[in-house]
Amino acid sequence: MKKRSRQGLRRFTVEVRSWGNYVERIADLERTLAKKPRTLQIEIIGTDEIPADVALRFRTALMKRSPRTGIVTNAHSSLQGGSVLLWLLGDSRTIRDDARLYFRRTTWSEEDEV
Q: Which residue, among 39, 51, 37, 36, has the nearest Cα to 86 in the 3D structure?
């Protein structure tokens, strides 16, 4: 009888740093998702901001995942900018009780053309 290995919960930590090089972390995320875990738990740690381009690269990697893989995002501190986008990509999201989400005001007026 063939024994099937279970790919249960996988944890993946993203440390948010202003000087961080996220290229390796995105490659690690792609390798983790290639194993097709049932649930991927992304732990977001740190108070700096992920650049928007990096957040979009994380999004691209997560959108290529197996349809059977669920994403859980946990924020351990307040989030701002691209870090919020990464947190919102989770199917299920948690944030520490005393943490906040910060959004930057837009500089566009209603008359500006997109």
A: 51
The per-residue pLDDT for range 47-84, each reduced to its tens digit, is 888 888 999 999 999 999 999 999 999 999 999 988 99
Strand ranges inside the chain, DSSP E: 9-15, 39-45, 70-75, 79-80, 92-95, 101-102
Burial 32-58 (b: 16+ CB within 10 A, else e): bbeeebebbbbebebeebbeeebbebb
Q: Distance between CA 63 and CA 57 in Å, rounded?
A: 10
> 52-63 and 23-34 are packed helices; what angle lies between their axes, rounded to 10 degrees?
10
The residue among 21, 25, 27 whose CA lies nearest residue 13 is 25
What's the rounded Cα separation, in Å, for the pair 51 and 15? 13
CA torsion angle 85 88 94 99 (round to 10): 40
CB 60 within 8 A of CB 22: no
- Give the chain's length: 114
